[in-house]
Specification:
By secondary structure, the protein is α+β, with helices and mostly antiparallel strands. It has helices at about 35-40, 80-95, 170-180, 215-230, 270-275, and strands at about 10-15, 20-25, 50-55, 65-70, 75, 95-100, 105-115, 115-120, 150, 155-160, 190-195, 200-205, 210, 235-240, 245-250, 255-260, 260-270. It has a 17-stranded mixed beta sheet that branches.
């Protein structure tokens, strides 16, 4: 990020497979981050535009990450943003392994070589109360048309296994289930097509955002759901609208690996910041 020299607030624009983020490092440039600022920044016409806002602050490990959705709500986890920030921090520090604290817990990120970054998103939440769901229920096959699987990855997920992921009209399908009564905190919605025992085609609707080209936590949740249902093994390739992630559900958690891209740096002007106070 450029030095703040005009009273503005520096930011970094990044994406993982088209899942795009604005990153604010408040360690170097202290600022009050509010839901109103997140919503204004998310506006692709009047702001910068993003799927999630990621705020980097001091933490018990190498840094603490806080995530906002485009509607100003918060999320405890954002896998692709975590990988993007980890790649940047490793490049800057020369480290190949980081400990990043989040509201999800402490996540380990590693340089996987070849321009790829891995993050351990932790163990999945499989009990109804932890996801959370509104009532005690079997999370493997919910009593919803299509019998989706519920999974928590620090945020709630609802995964539908379908014959053809391309044929599902996500723009209408996603919001219908994001607000389902079984999910008191709303949910991310995935439609997943099993291509092979180690290969999934998946598309995603993110709560508070809409259709996104990729989602790391959704990819992890889908891999876990497919393995639990015996549709795949625990290590899978997931093809999303924006590219491919590799997910490996190991004994120590769900590891996700993929590329990251730094698009540009910029500075939010005092005029813009004053307009959202």
């Amino acid at each position: 990020m450029r030095d703040r020299n005009d009273g503005g607030l520096p930011f970094r624009k990044m994406h993982g497979l088209g899942n795009d983020f604005v990153v604010l490092d408040v360690r170097a440039h202290p600022a009050e981050i509010t839901p109103a600022l997140a919503r204004a920044l998310a506006d692709r016409n009047r702001g910068v535009g993003f799927d999630q806002l990621a705020v980097v602050s001091d933490g018990a490990g190498d840094a603490h990450l806080t995530f906002y959705n485009a509607d100003g709500s918060t999320s405890a986890a954002c896998g692709n943003a975590t990988r993007c920030i980890a790649h940047h921090l490793m490049e800057r520090s020369g480290k190949t392994r980081l400990e990043l604290t989040t509201d999800r817990g402490t996540l380990i990120a590693e340089d996987a070589g070849g321009g790829l970054t891995s993050v351990n998103m932790g163990q999945p939440q499989l009990d109804w109360a932890d996801i959370p769901l509104a009532e005690e229920i079997d999370t493997l096959e919910l009593p919803i048309e299509g019998e989706p699987t519920a999974t928590g990855m620090g945020n709630p997920h609802c995964t539908f296994f379908v014959d053809d992921a391309e044929a599902v009209p996500l723009e209408s399908f996603g919001p219908r289930y994001e607000h389902h009564p079984l999910y008191p905190e709303r949910t991310n919605v995935q439609v997943a097509q099993i291509v092979a025992p180690d290969h999934i085609r998946m598309r995603v609707w993110e709560r508070g955002v809409g259709v996104t080209l990729a989602s790391g936590s959704s990819s992890c949740a889908t891999a876990v759901a497919a393995a639990r249902r015996g549709l795949t093994g625990r290590s899978v390739r997931i093809d999303l609208d924006g590219g491919t992630l590799n997910v490996d559900w190991r004994g120590d958690g769900v590891w996700m690996t993929g590329p990251t891209t730094h698009v540009f740096d910029g500075v939010l002007t005092p005029e813009f910041l004053d307009s959202v106070q």
